[in-house]
Write a structure and sequence with these properties.
It is a single chain. This protein has 318 residues and is α/β, with parallel strands linked by helices. The chain has two domains: 215 residues, Rossmann fold (3-Layer(aba) Sandwich); 87 residues, ACT domain (Alpha-Beta Plaits), CATH 3.30.70.260. Helices cover 32% and strands 29% of the residues. Strands 6-7-8-3-9-10 form a six-stranded mixed beta sheet, sandwiched between helices. Strands 2-1-4-5 form a four-stranded antiparallel beta sheet, covered by helices on one side. Strand 9 and strand 10 form a beta hairpin. Helix 2 packs across helix 3. It starts with a strand and ends in a 10-residue tail after the last helix.
């Protein structure tokens, strides 16, 4: 499979601070690709270099075979949605989108058609002539997304496209992205790991400016599983020892006297239910410890936390 985006030996320094260090990976053409990492991992810096907003200290990024330093040659074949995309409050949104379309090389008449098509795509055709300040936050987020849908771009970079959206608007954006699989290449950055696992067929994880892993979603999520358990009373040492002795339990991590995480290494996803039954049998049947809650973490989250050293709190992927 050919690559739509090629990052080779990328490095970016801000003074003495290294935001990216020798990052190399490829994004397959036609894929939905997740770019993950904690705050400060270098995701936005990488996007900014790709879009030509920043220059790399070393290394290169090629988009559709074009060096990012010459990104203007792509003329609408590539678009990017920054996380903080903003619009002029007193100007109708259709006029602003027409301007963006013209910057992408479309003539006036064609730019108007393309802008209206983009608004219809995100369900805002009736709001075309409204000023930006008259729109809700969710509506403005969708208007911003229109920039990425103007024309027919082959490669899209979306930085936190669903951040701050209500569930219905987030679902709409995810459906729009999902429909692009195979016909366009989409790289999206998100802190919502379940969203990335649901949408993407490949992902890369950055940590402290370095690439930790880049693989297919199937390989990233084939074995790992995370369970967070809250008990009605403290977990005893005897119960903890029996839980650790379960062959599929690779790690028991206490987060409070009554709460702990279990990382499971499963030979097959089908083994999960049997292991959960064994866990409950040990807790309830043997030690009379009744779980008040049991939250299952996404497999991608297991790998992410393993790499970044974070602690699953039961909500970070929602």
């Amino acid at each position: 499979m050919s690559a739509a985006l090629v990052i080779d030996g990328l490095r970016k320094n801000f003074g003495r601070v290294a935001a990216l260090e020798d990052v190399s990976f490829e994004v397959p053409a036609g894929s939905l690709f997740g770019l993950l990492g904690p705050n400060g991992a270098g995701k936005t810096t990488l996007f900014s270099i790709a879009a030509g907003f920043l220059r790399a200290s070393a290394g290169t990024i090629e988009l559709l075979g074009v060096d990012s330093r010459e990104v203007s040659r792509l003329h609408g074949r590539f678009t990017m949605l920054p996380q903080d995309a903003a619009f002029q409050g007193g100007i109708p949104v259709i006029e602003q989108l027409v301007m963006f379309a013209r910057l992408n090389g479309f003539a006036r008449d064609e730019a108007e058609v393309r802008a209206m098509q983009a608004l219809e795509l995100v369900g805002l055709g009736e709001s075309a002539k409204r000023n930006a300040r008259a729109l809700s936050h969710g509506m403005m987020k969708r208007v911003a997304l229109c920039q990425a849908f103007l024309g027919s771009p082959e490669l899209l970079l979306l930085d936190e496209p669903t951040a701050g959206l209500d569930p219905e608007n987030a679902r709409m954006v995810r459906n729009l992205v999902r429909q692009m699989r195979g016909s366009r290449t989409v790289v999206l950055s998100s802190h919502n790991l379940r969203e990335i696992q649901d949408l993407c067929d490949h992902a890369a994880i950055l940590h402290e400016g370095r690439l930790e892993v880049c693989d297919s979603m199937e390989n990233l999520t084939s074995k790992g599983f995370l369970v967070r358990i809250t008990l009605g009373s403290p977990l005893t040492d005897a119960a903890a020892a029996e839980l650790r002795a379960i062959p599929e339990v690779s790690l028991l991590e206490r987060t409070s006297p009554e709460e702990f995480n279990l990382t499971l290494d499963l030979a097959s996803p089908d083994d999960k239910n049997g292991v959960l039954k064994t866990i409950n049998k040990i807790l309830i049947g043997t030690h009379d410890l009744v779980p008040r809650s049991l939250n299952e973490g996404a497999s991608l989250e297991t790998r992410f936390l393993e790499i970044t050293g974070g602690v699953y709190d039961g909500s970070s992927s929602s």
